[in-house]
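Hi U.,

Before I forget, here's the chain from the pilot set. I'm dumping it here mostly so it's searchable later in email.
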Amino acid sequence: MTTYAPQSKAHDQIRHEQRTNRRMTWLVALSLVGYPLLGTLVALTSLPSLVAAVPVRLAVIFLSLSLLLTVRLTEPLLFSIRRIPMTPVRVALMLFWLIYICRLIWDWQVVQMPEADSALLYLSVVGLPPALALVGVAPRYWDANAFAKVAFFAGAATCAVAVAATLLGLAGERSLMEETGRLAFDTVNSITYGHVAVTTLLAGLVGWSDGASRRPAVLVVVVVGAVAALVCLQLAASKGPILALAVCILALGVFNARFRWVLFAMLPVAAVFLFLAYDGNLGQRFASVEEDPSTINRWALLTNAIAQFLEHPILGNAFVETEMQTYPHNPLVEAAMATGVLGLSLYAFILFNAGLRLLGLFMSKGRTLFALVALQYLVGEHFSGSLYASGGLWLSIAMVIAMTSREEPASSSRVDKSHYVPQASAGQSGLRSEQ
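Structure:
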């Protein structure tokens, strides 16, 4: 009697990889676009923002634990020295998280600083779970095409609903357009909408270029979604995401020869975008940077945070700038201010290492979209993000580390899917036939 254990094992391995890929795709998409989409829909009702926040956060935690435990039980990927080693950058990342958590606990329990407990909770619920789950996922599990579809459709829907609700007045008093002059609701801020729009544009561009379908209907959907994202980006009038998009387009054309045409194709799009934005709030914010209240406030925060670090260089001083009681909107400066020289050194090493790895991702087929999204948040979050509230920052770093890590060769960690060799049972001939 002939058994087919190798084929069965191969099928089990394929199903495991498919499940892991689906969890990974939805985890990244929900972490980046999930709350903005649900928060925009909630803004059209009288429901509180918690109705949007709680389901998304619980879903992210569930997917993170599911991905972490599933991969850990079947293949010890996260902390395995044999399959994916604890490289220096992984060690630095874990140490920095530990030091920063100690800072938050100290400020909460000892110094009793306001909002320190909220910062610790936000980091523990939003920032760390997806990053911990993804940093150990082997490179073969990352599927850019699947992520492009989910991110594009969710992002385009978010942008379209937000723009329609603002222009048609569907959100009523929950819209902050009249108060701030920028696309925002009491559930989702302008910076978040800017980043959702940029992610949508990148997913549409790379997803359509790398996708198998070139049907006109697909192109129409991509164009409509891109228009909604561009309008959302303009109305949000957030400088960080726009600068991040410019850096991503430039990097895409420079480091990936297949997309060099993007540099020329984007020139007319950029010209139209700038022309429409010239007389609006976005144009005014760029034209009068030195008079923009937000920019002036950011410079004051940065200056005070640097002075705070210089006064307490060894261990840092606090998780926020003590005069204005908020983060300095630059994670690198925040790392120095909160954790001192040791934390700053670890964080700078993590950023430098992630930057070097990004160069390789840009030139790797099937990794371009992840490289762009990671670059988007690494750039954007250093204009407006924080260490405890910027889930996209840690998610990007984890993605870059995971996709550029070496794993055990396929011969010892995977079963060849292309064929199997039937095994002869006792009493049969030792000859084996390959099917």
